[in-house]
Amino acid sequence: MTAQDRISPGFSDPVFQSQAAFRALLAALSEPGTLQAVAADITPPEGLAMATATTLLALADYETPVWLPEALRDGAAAAWLRFHCGVALVDEPAGAAFAVLDGAADEPRLSAFNLGTDQFPDRSTTVIVQVAALEGGTAFTLSGPGIPGSRTIAPRGLRPSFIAELSDNGALYPLGVDVVLAHGDGVIGLPRSTEIGEAV
Fold this sequence. Notes:
Elements: H1 14-30, E1 35-37, H2 50-59, E2 66-67, H3 70-73, H4 76-85, E3 98-102, E4 126-130, E5 140-143, E6 151-153, H5 162-171, E7 178-183, E8 186-190, E9 195-198
Parallel strand pairs: 2-3, 3-4, 4-7
Antiparallel strand pairs: 1-8, 5-6, 5-9, 7-8
């Protein structure tokens, strides 16, 4: 069976479903730390959470290179994204507009992705971090734009250094990557403007 034979359908109503996904992602990034549902009537390929697949269907295209972990580059996920989004897959994290990262993997670090430039900070990578769960893990606090006071989240399935990497990423603002935590059909946005602290 070829990769083409294994490709599951994408959006059945591309305009409506992509708009719904975009609104949910906008809410996640404008209200950091809030759980948003990004769901569509699709069967994601092996290796991609529903929220990850839906996000990339809504946002990625032939002008937005995508980085995938090595385990996904030659399988169904890569074929699915090429077929439905027309994306080019890149080998180097810094060349990606969007990236899918296993939150528990040791590499690459967030700093390996495109952090933007002084002239074009908006051209940094959006990193979708797939986690084991969006709750039940090590808690940390968020503050900054879109957060009244502070919020606490506790995603599960992140490497030990990840919270420190998020903190370092926020210190680069207005440079830095935007992070979206994904599990099942849920996402939590962590834009580069978010400040990371220890849970009290």
